[in-house]
Amino acid sequence: MKLNIRMSAAVLAVLLAAATGCSDKATGGSGGTGKDGVKHGPGVTDTTIKLGVITDLTGPYAPLGKGLTQAEQLYVEEINKAGGICGRKLELVVRDAGYDVQKSMSAYSELQGSTLAIPQLIGSHVASALKTRINSDKVLTIPMAWSNTLLGSEYLQITGPTYDVDMINGIDWLVKTGAVKKGGTLGHIYFDNDYGASALLGTKYAADKHGLKVVEQKIKPTDTDLTNQAGALAKQKVDGILLSVGPAQSASAAGVARVAGFKGPILGSNSAYAKQLLATKAKPALLQGFYIATAGIPIQEDLPALKKIRDGYAAKFPGQPQDSAVVTGYSSGEIIGNAIKKACASKDLTREGLIKAHRSTNAFDNGQGGTLDFTYFDKPPTLQTFIVQPDEQAISGTKIVQNRTESELVKGYKVPLA
Amino acid sequence: MFESPRWVRISALVAGVALMLLVPFYADTFWMQAGLFAIAAAIGAIGLNLLTGATGQLSLGHAFFLAVGAYGYVYFASESDNHFVGLGLPTPVAAILAVLLAGLVGGIFSPIAGRLKGTYLGIATLALIFIGQHILSNAESVTGSHNGRQVPPLDLGFLVFDDSPELVVANVPLGAFERLWFLALILLVISAWVARGVLRGRPGRALNTIRDHEIAAGVMGVPVARYRAAVFVLSSMYAGLAGVILALVFRQTVPDYFGIILALDYLAMIVIGGLGTVAGAMIGAVFITLLPQVLTRYSDGLPLVAAPGSGGFSPAEAARIIYGAAVVAVVLFLPGGLFGMWTRIRLAVAARRHRAV
Question: Which residues form the Leucine-binding protein domain (chain A) (predicted)?
């Protein structure tokens, strides 16, 4: 036995010594400089720039993930047809994590070493879990979630106003148009997660400033029947109902509230509505007095940039719905593309060069009518929100009621950081 | 039994351990992380196998005890600040306390765990998952609610399990994952060894008798309720240890992870690997943990599997189908799980050789 242990130790030592000589890991990291004098970061070669996508194609956010990913694929294809960026083709590496934390983490572990940036990361709980690592790996990442807790990190770039900002702008609009009178009561039904928590922050702030009372109704994302909650709010005679829930819950709440005799306005966060709802029994309730506060411009708006996305998407993915995910996905590609172009100009396609280039953009304009400011990361890149309404005829399923507006109220609001 | 000679078994073990020790010097971040998930799952699954496999007590609450371990560690190790409360204890002490805490919580549940048998306990433990999810999302100052809490890296004084300070061994930089790999491996070996001891000794025989014939066990003088409660506590502690390792790998704990799906995954691990044995739990854990990750990563090269986003059969769906098919196949054809199959093959080969001689 003694001999065995000694022998084992010897075998181990020999193997360990042999191991160290020929390991890939021993090279001291990637990098180097291309033939054109551009410094290379992870995922960059003389011919390609790889970008990572951590999406959800099989989980609860599959419709969103599919729209985002396909729009990003469209963007990459168009860029490559025009010769790429910096003389290099873009390449998307898509990983389906199904909204699962562990799978997302393993996808991230793979992609952080092999791609330059991550133009799509679905799941704010995933983004929260990965935040520390994203910061230490310096990967420019676009989380596809809009809660205030994702602010405050240099490497995470939110693409629009956070849920709380949307709510403040929305409530301000309700008060300004007289739909809700000062001193009235708002009922807010929200998910018990960071989406709902973020929206509620905005509601509380706006209600406080306008002298409104708030009745809170917290629900689980798995609850789909909101009869009790919406019925209770209607019974309490609230003047307006706010919804920070999913589309299924919105349909239930709007339907129940109207049946219970609620006449006031209903305002949803941007994830509270989907065009598919107009094919359900809730349709009459949604076409009357139902509004959505959102950062996304409806895709059918008459702008050349949007027409290009519509036509390109219809040609590449015929028959597929053109919802807000398409515009958001395409824009996220453009945001990363813009950063790569700028980084290329200073001949630095490393992670450091990319974030420097990205953070130097103070008025990013992709022809959608507004601009985004990326020079800070402790507040959203814009504070402007659209108020839209369900519309059966429109491609996106919504039409604009009030164009993008930054309310006076939101100017005094400081978005709380995580 | 046709056992291999002792020296063969020992050399196989040594070679195996040596191979595992070499992994961090070669594997990239993806494999390091996948491997760490698998090791943590193996420790958790060994615990569940003691309870469900050896004693026949179904538990759906395993994910809850993983959460107790993970959040317990964070609570004990973190300092209090504006948002969160914590005890700020030295991290090794916090890790040990977290495992003990999981055992304690299991002990609190033991009046129930001792009295209910089999599937009835499964239903009762299901409640733990929902209670756990409720606590995790509402006790914000302890758990950090939906956004979770940052996990302080384990600090042994001479070695910190983090990316900095830098540590280079034989020209290979060893980051947090590589360092954790060695720790997790040691813990796995100890866990497996303890469980093996329990299963092969008197307690193991008592547990198996409880599973096979409760009345017979009672007649023979086995205190059935006490054994059931004790094995529940032990299994909770295994889950707690797995939870601590997972927390260290995650670096940020999020409540969504510790749900019903995770509990079912653990049951699938021990069924697929083999009920009632340590090796079975480990094989099942590796299989269930690595399968979806590997399929996703190498989806580009697999036949019949479409690239994500292009429509068609996605890798995640493929993983789920294989997973389901594996459970059905094991239940139908391999009563002893993957490990049982291995044992049968070995016996068959040995028997043939024996006959030939």
Answer: 48-391
What separation in angstroms does the CA of A291 have from each of A172, A285, A328? Answer: 13, 11, 20
CB within 8 Å: A26 and B316: no
Sole residue written with tokens 């974030």? A355
SS3 call for A300: coil
Interface test with A, best of B151, B189, B252 (most A CBs within 10 A): B252
- Residues of chain A whose pLDDT is less than 70? 1-31, 418
Which ipTM value was assigned to this complex? 0.75
Of B37, B171, B314, the CB nearest to A102: B37
Cα-based torsion angle of the residue sequence A385, A328, A145, A200 in order, rounded to the nearest 10 degrees: 20
Instruction: Give the span between the Cα atoms of B97 and B42, in whole angstroms.
Output: 21
In angstroms, rounded to a whole number, what is the distance separating the alpha carbons of residues A270 and A250?
11
Q: Structure tokens of A125?
A: 């709980």
Residue in chain A nearest B147 by alpha carbon: A128
CATH topology of domain B25-356: ABC transporter involved in vitamin B12 uptake, BtuC (1.10.3470)
Q: What are the structural domains of chain A?
A: 39-161+301-358 (3.40.50.2300), 163-294+384-411 (3.40.50.2300)
Return all residues near B26 (Cβ < 8 A) that are at least 6 apart.
A19, A23, A24, A25
Q: Which of A7, A55, A101 is opposite residue B308, by nearest beta carbon?
A: A55
Complete DSSP assignment for B211-235: HH-HHHHHHTT--HHHHHHHHHHHH
Taking an 8 Å cut-off on Cβ atoms, the answer to whether A103 and B293 are in contact is: yes
Instruction: Confirm if B315 and B255 have CB atoms less than 8 A apart.
Output: no
Chain B interface, best mutation among A14, A92, A128, by max B CB count within 10 A? A128
Our CA-based measurement puts residue B286 at a distance from the nearest CA of chain A, in whole angstroms, of 14
- With CA atoms as reference, report the closest residue to B291 among B22, B24, B34: B34
The strand pairing partners of B150, in sequence order, are B252
Is B325 at the interface with chain A, CB within 8 A? no
Q: How far apart are CA A131 and CA A137, in angstroms?
A: 10
> From the candidates A25, A50, A417, which should be mutated to test the interface with B, based on the most B CB atoms within 10 A?
A25
Q: Are B277 and B53 in contact (CB under 8 A)?
A: yes
Cβ-defined contact of A98 to B316 (cutoff 8 Å): yes
Nearest to A109 among B33, B148, B163 (CB): B33
Residue B21 tokens, joined: 């020790």
Q: What is the largest CA-CA distance in chain A?
A: 89
Give B-chain residues touching A197 at CB under 8 angstroms: 145-146
> CB–CB of B353/B5 below 8 Å?
no
Given a contact cutoff of 8 angstroms between Cβ atoms, the answer to whether A229 and A123 are in contact is no
Find the residue in A nearest to B178 (Cα). Answer: A25
Say how far apart CA A68 and CA A90 lie, in whole Å. Answer: 17
A55 CB neighbours in chain B (<8 A) are: 308-309
Q: How many whole angstroms from its chain centre is CA B153?
A: 20
Per CB-CB distance under 8 Å, the chain B contacts of A124 are 146
**Among candidate residues B298, B257, B42, the one with its CA nearest the CA of residue A128:** B257
pLDDT tens per residue across all 357 residues of chain B:
455 677 887 888 888 888 888 888 888 888 998 999 999 999 999 999 999 988 888 899 899 999 999 999 999 999 888 778 888 899 999 999 999 999 999 999 988 888 888 788 888 999 999 999 889 888 888 888 777 888 899 988 888 888 777 777 777 778 888 899 999 999 999 999 999 999 999 999 999 898 888 899 989 888 988 999 999 999 999 999 999 999 999 888 888 889 888 999 999 899 888 888 899 999 999 998 988 888 777 766 665 555 555 556 666 677 778 878 888 888 888 877 888 888 888 888 888 887 766
B146 touches chain A (CB under 8 A): yes
